[in-house]
Each structure stands twice: as structure tokens, then as C-alpha cells.
Amino acid sequence: MKKSVEPDTPILDDCLKLSSDPPAYKTKHYIVEADSKYILKAVAWTKCIESNVYPIMLDMMEHTPKVKLHALHFVDHRHRGSKGTGAWFERIKRFRNTQYVGSRIKIFHGKLHDQPPYRKVGDITYETIHGLLDEAKNSRNRTTKWKPIWRYELLDRIFEMELCQRLGDEMASEKRYHKRVKEGANYAVFAKFWKAYGWEPFKSLIVRLHNDPNFPPTLLDQNNFAYYMSLFTKEDVSGFFEKHGWNIDNKTKEKITEDLQKRSN
Question: How far apart are CA 109 and CA 88, in angstroms?
Fold first, then answer.
């Protein structure tokens, strides 16, 4: 196999070169692997995300996620499923024959053609969100995968909307919000809940999922979700969900009132 030509540039000066072909370089939070034709742009884009976006994502988590490394593989094709998407998260795994374990993300190298300026939202960022939330959603201590009252990526998408706001990109946040609302069903309900109550109750949910392996996501039916979100917001939000078509039973409402009173005493 013909070895790739190694680039010589300051962009790579503070990176750890791994023994890999195509070339792979490790930054603080990422491993970047790409053909030598694309490696400079790939590392530069990754560093842009790492410097300007990644710290904000960690701040949104409140706790330190177990997944601290993300392997970006720039490949020559789009995903053959998912309508041909240009970036996708696969799983948590070890990188090649190294000691590094992290989320595995693939990105079509065509995403680099119009860079820079480097996109801060989408692609690298969104797939990294999957890696950060994966442990909380799919802990091995849980008996089932993440299939509560919403689809798999809804919490990730709310995370992205909040991130856009924190990056000062209100237009991107609003665009994603209206897209979620148009999707209907529970996507719209949760997007509207985020709009009304902000990120904090969702962050509390992530913390609970992270800290309590006996709190499986499948417990989150409509009643339980309304209950926990009431505790996280410190007010009875069952009426919000009823307004959007949910049926919250009286037993849950009584428990919400009782437990909120206990917490206020």
C-alpha cells in the first residue's frame, strides 16, 4: 500500500501524530483521520470546533461525560442510509490499535470543499453531541435502549438548539426550533417545552440519567415525564403537556403537588 504524504504545517504542530494510514492526528478531545489531501482542512475545522464550541457543550452538561474523545473519520462517501447524510455517529469504540476509546464519527470529505470559514453548528458538532449523550442514554447498566416517549435523537436536537443560542446564532436556533415543531407529535411538544422553560430541566434530566443507572429512559412515559419535569422546573408543568394533547392522570398531578410542597418546606 502506498503511504500518504505527510503534511508539513503549523496546524499540526501541537497534535500527536498516530501511526495510521491515512494520516491521523490527536488533539485534546479529537482524533482526526483523513486522506493527506484533506487532513489540513480536517484538523483546522476540528480545532475550530474544539476551541469555540466544545467548551460550551461541556458547560451545558454540568457533569464530565465519560466519553472524552471523539474520532473523526473523513471518508469518500456519504452514509448509504439515512437519506445520504454527510455525517453520522456510529458507536463508542477503540481507535485502531491504540489505547484511545471514544465516539466514532464519520464525515464525508466533501463537507470540507467550502471550508473555511468553518461551520460551528452541524456536522462535527452535532455528531459530537451524540457521543456526549450516548453514555447517559445507553448505559450498560440499563436493561433497554433509549426508547421512551420520543425518538432517539430528540434530546440531542434540543441540545443543539440551546447550543446555537449560546453561540449567539439565534437564526440557526430558530430554524431548528421551527423544524422540530413542524415534525409534529412529541418532537413539537418538547421543542415548545424548551422554548418555554429553557435548557435547565433537560440538563437536570441528563444529570439524573448520568448519575442514576436505575433510572432507565423507558420509565419516561407521559405521566412520569411531566412529573420529573415539574420537579426540575420546581413548578407543576402538567398543564403545559395537557395543553399540547397529553393525558396526565390525577394520581400524577397529586404526586407532583405533594412532592413540590415537600421540597419547598
Answer: 12
